[in-house]
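pls design
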């Protein structure tokens, strides 16, 4: 079991995870570790990476680190800087504790000089988002990471380009009648599909390639046509029910169901199904009343009824059961087709976005992360790149670490 450590006991090397709930002092802890790196390891702000996930959080974090460093610099100009004062608040006590910890191995003059130099250099501090850090690494170490000599322009917001790509996918898919129907039924407009496809939670997930999705869609189309043919045959059979056939079926219901109201509603349902089958609508378009009739006569529904002594038999009820099974099979095929459309649109976006960005000479934040992760995973250059980058930034503090995606974690693990 790993022993719990406070920010003063935590080693300043290797990968360390600090767990804390919201409002329990994560920023306070980061500021303490930042001050320790400066005082104990003698690092200047431009050699410590401090990363978080939003620009708003970046601004607040930079202010807190600057305040903590200024506080330490002022204390180190005092006599006996580690001694607590009566008017010290919590942050001042923590700062004095860091000073006392550092004084065990380093003299006060050296600590004062380190704090003073770091305070003067705070404008060079590397405090920002992980995306911005990745882009900076690529810019500063283009040779080591294999970036092209022509540095791409950073595209701050890729959403417009992503929407354009999803609209292209929508337009291409709409040439197929079934796909056009499902797109309209499920998402209505391309913007709704884009919101789902461009969700950042897709990052790090593997999506099937387009060839597999196309083949699956073709198989589903064949199955749908076969099911529609079965439905058409069942509808034609139901349309052929005459009054004599219905009379026999109603007598069967009377023999099976003792409750008069339940028996009557189901007998009426049989008439509704015959009316639907003769109306000339598409076989997969059941009216609400026809759908209810099928559900009421389903085996599962009847078996659960106390008043149903046994399941009704005969060709009418076989046809209803076949209709129910075919409708459910068709619904399942449509559900699968919707999932394939969603995965296909994401695969299309994953393929098209980098290509279009390259053609435009731009790079998004996520693409900067992907490019750096790929460079650090390249056996031809990873060791040289990692060595050079780590020498430039020997330490990193990452706020909201749980929000890192697999690519970001891969980068942090290799560099620090």
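designed seq:
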């Amino acid at each position: 079991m790993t022993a719990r450590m406070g920010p003063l006991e935590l080693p300043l090397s290797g990968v360390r995870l600090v767990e804390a709930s919201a409002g329990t002092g994560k920023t306070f802890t980061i500021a303490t570790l930042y001050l320790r790196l400066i005082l104990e390891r003698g690092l200047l702000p431009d050699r410590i990476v401090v990363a978080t996930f939003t620009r708003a959080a970046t601004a607040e974090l930079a202010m807190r680190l600057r305040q903590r460093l200024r506080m330490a610099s002022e204390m180190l100009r005092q006599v006996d800087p580690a001694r607590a004062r009566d008017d010290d608040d919590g942050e001042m006590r923590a700062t004095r504790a860091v000073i006392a910890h550092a004084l065990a191995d380093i003299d006060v003059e050296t600590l004062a000089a380190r704090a003073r130099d770091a305070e003067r250099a705070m404008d060079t501090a590397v405090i920002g988002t992980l995306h911005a850090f990745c882009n900076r690494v690529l810019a500063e170490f283009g040779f080591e990471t294999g970036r092209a000599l022509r540095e791409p322009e950073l595209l701050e917001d890729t959403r417009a380009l992503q929407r354009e790509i999803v609209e292209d996918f929508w337009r291409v898919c709409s040439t197929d009648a079934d796909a056009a129907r499902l797109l309209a039924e499920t998402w209505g407009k391309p913007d709704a599909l884009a919101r789902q496809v461009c969700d950042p939670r897709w990052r790090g997930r593997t999506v099937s390639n387009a060839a597999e999705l196309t083949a699956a869609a073709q198989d589903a189309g064949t199955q749908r046509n076969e099911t529609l043919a079965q439905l058409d045959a069942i509808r034609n059979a139901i349309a052929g029910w005459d009054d004599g056939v219905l009379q026999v079926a109603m007598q069967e219901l009377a023999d099976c169901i003792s409750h008069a109201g339940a028996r009557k509603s189901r007998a009426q349902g049989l008439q509704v199904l015959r009316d639907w089958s003769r109306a000339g609508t598409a076989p997969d378009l059941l009216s609400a009343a026809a759908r209810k009739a099928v559900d009421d006569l389903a085996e599962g529904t009847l078996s659960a009824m106390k008043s149903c002594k046994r399941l009704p038999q005969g060709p009418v009820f076989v046809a209803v059961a076949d209709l129910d099974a075919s409708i459910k099979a068709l619904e399942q095929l449509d559900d699968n087709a919707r999932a394939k459309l969603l995965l296909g649109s994401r695969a299309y976006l994953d393929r098209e976005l980098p290509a279009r960005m390259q053609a435009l000479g731009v790079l998004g934040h996520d693409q900067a992360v992907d490019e750096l992760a790929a460079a650090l995973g390249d056996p031809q250059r990873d060791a040289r790149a990692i060595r050079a980058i780590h020498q430039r930034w020997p330490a990193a503090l990452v706020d909201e670490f749980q929000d890192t995606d697999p690519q970001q974690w891969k980068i942090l693990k290799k560099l620090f």
